């Protein structure tokens, strides 16, 4: 069947297998020369694609244990974050780290070592994993924790499925008093202003900025900063823990490419900036964390050709120069992006291929075409020259050299991979492209 | 709620894993060993009662609960707070699913073994239950491989028995008990394959046709006796049974859709349902094709 990541590029005919339990997964792993696990396909590119065998984990989604005293959860890797939150939020527990969509699996969150708006305080999701069960290439199930197979844990967190199939994950949720977020919105007129705001907001649990990536010259970097805290019962006496009931609306058809042109993007960006009212508001957690989830299949607005998300991080010392250079290049190319997000990461975590490292991360969306691919090659050069790296969960097009330049612990990862999977049973289109 | 006559759901004590428990995770280390056979940590959540209390009058029994469709139907009912009795040939394989259901929904879940082909076991099993369930659903089925069924009578017999004889007799036993009680819902998962015999799967299809006719007769008999019978014709469903087949996406339902349709049919007292409405149209066209034309088509 035809599969793709969230960007719908590339789309590839993949033989699909379905994991229902550990024995079944083991039979698949031992019976295949080449395969990759796939969660909910919310990575943008080709990380969860293997034409010969793509093993879906979605039918292994049982919640196995929950301790209401400590918030410790054990679940199968295919459990969706949305399902977990539907269970835990009414009981007063929230995910320690969440990406910008709740339609991801817990296994996918470990494999990509996802980050959220609280990275500067909480680190990545992998940081909160106490232990996991990993099915490796030899058919064995290994418990990986900080005191057992610690090296394998470091390679699996952020390892994009290349160390094996994650079967179960144990981690702790964080307590919340309400399902609401107290959000504060601030405006910044320039890049320096937004950097200053990000830095002085480091005491806030959640911070993220949206940048008008079509603004040029003096306005370059004009943006809105959103910072938030879980609202206490006193702050939001009316907020319940019940999940807000809302129906998903789907984008009904693929948008024609013409709908997205420099003018419509400019208009969108200007409007968005104008609409962002500085001030404080109480919003439910779904609206706050997952605004895009309200429109199902929104990836179709980029049309049939698909799109790609470009997410880089540049070490703090070089962030200002690097991010401005990237934004200037994008702006000069007249290739605005609907989404341009800026966030200041905290310290690097333990995952060998984990993406976040201390510095600013910038995220941009582009429709896939030759002009984009050429522009992104130029951006790669800027990012690498500033000591930065790209996020594998978003990538569908970069090269092995860029990978090597950005990830200094790559050799350590490859040595472990050689030890646990010498025949490279686990591989994706991405791992082949990047020589992983 | 699907059964308005039922009392408030017999909610069993809230999920377990008290603070004092030695840590709810993996029993037994699994480091570098072989795959845990009855996978590792299922034991953890198992303190919600493993049997049904006798006052659980809104219980749902599912025959074939280990199938993807059966599991989806179990989840949908648990989400409504209904206690479950799940039958499978190897109930141990359902332990994790049961743990999940107890934990997420706080309902009692009882697992029991049954090979439906063991006809003599039907009545004793039903009589041993703590309570006659409000709803009984048969999901059992066996597609088999048509060429094998055509060549090997023993294989054809197994397919016929599994899709027709055995589930029909089981539901017949259930029907008698429900009739005596004067209430209940019986749901049979049949198939569009029973709507017309086709070269590609007529052994399976003929058995499903028999099952459909049986359910129809049962419904007729029990109308006015407080017992409702639903026939479900799912169309293509993305399950273990159809793994590896190249099914057209618009005609293929997910197991969760089947479950939703089953619950809706139960609540609204529908008689015969197709899960995706397009199948009603397709099958009425297929049934309408004259035999002389039909036999020359390879359908
Ligand atoms: C709208 C949107 C917003 C997002 N926002 C963020 C964000 O804020 N922060 C962030 O970090 N990411 C973000 N992402 C990316 C997303 O969180 C990651 O790509 C995540 O990995 C997707 O999970 P998935 O279950 O869909 O995995 P998939 O996309 O199916 O797979 C991702 C990778 O994980 C591997 N994998 C999945 N399951 C297993 C398993 N059981 N065992 C071994 N390997 C496995 C796959 O092989 C693949 O390499 C966003 C994505 C979208 C669409
Ligand atoms: N998938 C489709 O496209 C489709 C379409 C129309 C109708 N259906 C029907 O939907 C139902 C469920 O099918 P599925 O697709 O989910 O496939 P499945 O996984 O193959 O389910 C078959 C179920 O039947 C049970 N079963 C078979 N023989 C049995 C026996 N002797 N005793 C007890 N249980 C037995 C199996 O139980 P064990 O776990 O014990 O093996 C399993 O739960 C079947 O009736 C099928 O005919 C399916």
From TrEMBL, chain A:
Query: What protein name does the entry list?
Result: FAD-binding oxidoreductase
Give the Gene3D superfamilies listed for this entry.
Answer: 3.30.465.10, Vanillyl-alcohol Oxidase, Chain A, domain 4
Write down the superkingdom of origin: Bacteria
Write out the GO cellular component annotations. Answer: membrane
- What does the record give under GO molecular function? D-arabinono-1,4-lactone oxidase activity; FAD binding
User: For the FAD-binding PCMH-type domain, which residue ranges apply?
Assistant: 1-176
User: What UniProt keywords apply to this chain's record, in alphabetical order?
Assistant: FAD, Flavoprotein, Oxidoreductase
Cite the SUPFAM superfamilies for this sequence: FAD-binding/transporter-associated domain-like
Output the lineage of the source organism.
Answer: Bacteria, Pseudomonadati, Pseudomonadota, Alphaproteobacteria, Acetobacterales
From TrEMBL, chain B:
Q: Where is the composition biased (Low complexity)?
A: 22-41
A Pfam family reported for this protein in Swiss-Prot or TrEMBL? adh_short
Keywords assigned by UniProt, alphabetized: Oxidoreductase
| Gene Ontology MF: a single term | oxidoreductase activity
**Per the record, which residues fall in region Disordered?**
1-41
Q: Name one GO cellular component term.
A: membrane
Please list the residue ranges that the record marks as compositionally biased, kind Pro residues.
1-21
Similarity remark = Belongs to the short-chain dehydrogenases/reductases (SDR) family.
- Can you say what this protein is called? SDR family oxidoreductase
Organism whose genome encodes this protein:
Roseomonas acroporae
């Amino acid at each position: 069947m035809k599969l793709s990541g969230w960007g719908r590029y590339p789309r590839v005919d993949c033989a699909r297998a379905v994991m229902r339990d550990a024995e079944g997964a083991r039979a698949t792993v031992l019976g295949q020369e080449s395969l990759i696990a796939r969660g909910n396909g919310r990575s943008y590119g080709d990380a969860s694609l293997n034409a010969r065998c793509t093993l879906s984990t979605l039918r292994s989604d049982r919640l196995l244990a929950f301790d209401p005293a400590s918030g410790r959860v054990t679940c199968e890797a295919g459990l969706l974050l949305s399902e977990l939150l539907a269970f835990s939020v009414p009981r007063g527990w929230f995910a320690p780290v969440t990406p910008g969509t709740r339609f991801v699996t817990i296994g996918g969150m470990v494999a990509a070592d996802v980050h959220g708006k609280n990275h500067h305080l909480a680190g990545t999701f992998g940081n909160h994993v106490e232990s996991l069960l990993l099915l490796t290439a030899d058919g064995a199930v290994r418990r990986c924790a900080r005191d057992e197979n610690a090296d394998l844990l470091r390679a699996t967190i952020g390892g994009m499925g290349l160390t094996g199939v994650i079967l179960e994950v144990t981690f702790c949720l964080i307590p919340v008093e309400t399902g609401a977020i107290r959000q504060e919105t601030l405006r910044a007129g320039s890049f320096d202003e937004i950097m200053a705001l990000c830095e002085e907001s480091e005491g806030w649990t959640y911070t993220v900025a949206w940048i008008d990536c079509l603004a040029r010259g003096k306005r370059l970097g004009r943006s809105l900063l959103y910072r938030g805290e879980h609202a206490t019962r006193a702050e939001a006496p009316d907020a319940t823990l019940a999940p807000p009931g809302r129906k998903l609306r789907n984008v009904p058809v693929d948008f024609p490419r013409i709908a997205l042109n420099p003018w419509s993007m400019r208009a969108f960006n200007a409007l968005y900036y104008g609409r962002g009212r500085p001030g404080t508001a109480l919003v439910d957690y779904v609206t706050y964390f997952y605004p895009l989830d309200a429109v199902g299949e929104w990836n179709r607005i980029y049309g049939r050709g698909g799109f790609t998300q470009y997410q880089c991080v540049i070490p703090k010392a070089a962030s200002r120069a690097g991010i401005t250079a990237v934004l200037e290049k994008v702006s000069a190319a007249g290739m605005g992006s609907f989404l341009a997000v800026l966030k200041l990461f905290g310290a690097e975590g333990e995952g060998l291929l984990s993406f976040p490292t201390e510095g600013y991360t910038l995220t941009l969306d582009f429709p896939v075409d030759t002009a984009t691919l050429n522009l992104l090659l130029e951006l790669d050069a800027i990012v690498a020259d500033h000591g930065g790296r790209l996020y594998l969960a978003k990538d569908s097009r970069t090269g092995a050299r860029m990978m090597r330049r950005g990830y200094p612990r790559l050799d350590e990862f490859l040595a472990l991979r050689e030890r646990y999977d010498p025949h490279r049973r686990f591989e994706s289109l991405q791992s082949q492209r990047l020589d992983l | 709620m699907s059964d308005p006559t039922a009392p408030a759901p017999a909610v069993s004590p809230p999920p377990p894993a008290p603070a004092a428990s030695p840590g709810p995770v993996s029993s037994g280390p699994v480091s570098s060993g072989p795959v845990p056979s009855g996978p590792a940590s299922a034991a953890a959540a198992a303190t919600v009662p493993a049997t049904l209390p006798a006052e659980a009058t809104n219980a749902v029994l599912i025959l074939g609960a280990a199938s993807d469709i059966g599991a989806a139907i179990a989840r949908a009912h648990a989400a409504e707070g209904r206690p479950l009795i799940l039958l499978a040939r190897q109930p141990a394989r359902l332990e994790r699913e049961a743990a999940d259901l107890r934990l997420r929904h706080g309902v009692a879940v009882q697992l029991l073994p049954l090979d439906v082909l063991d006809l003599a076991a039907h009545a004793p099993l039903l009589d041993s239950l703590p309570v006659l369930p409000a709803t009984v659903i048969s999901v059992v089925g066996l597609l088999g491989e048509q060429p094998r069924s055509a060549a090997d009578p023993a294989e054809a017999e197994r397919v016929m028995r599994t899709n027709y004889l055995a589930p029909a007799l089981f539901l017949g036993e259930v029907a008698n008990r429900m009739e005596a009680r004067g209430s209940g819902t019986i749901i049979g998962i049949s198939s569009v394959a029973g709507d017309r015999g086709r070269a590609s799967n007529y052994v399976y299809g003929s058995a499903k046709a028999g099952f459909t006719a049986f359910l129809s007769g049962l419904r007729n008999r029990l109308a006015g006796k407080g017992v409702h019978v639903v026939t479900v014709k799912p169309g293509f469903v993305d399950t273990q049974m159809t793994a590896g087949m190249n099914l057209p996406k618009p005609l293929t339902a997910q197991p969760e859709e089947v479950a939703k349709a089953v619950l809706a049919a139960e609540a609204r007292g529908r008689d015969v349902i197709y899960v995706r409405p397009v199948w009603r149209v397709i099958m009425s066209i297929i049934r309408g094709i004259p035999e002389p034309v039909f036999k020359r088509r390879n359908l």
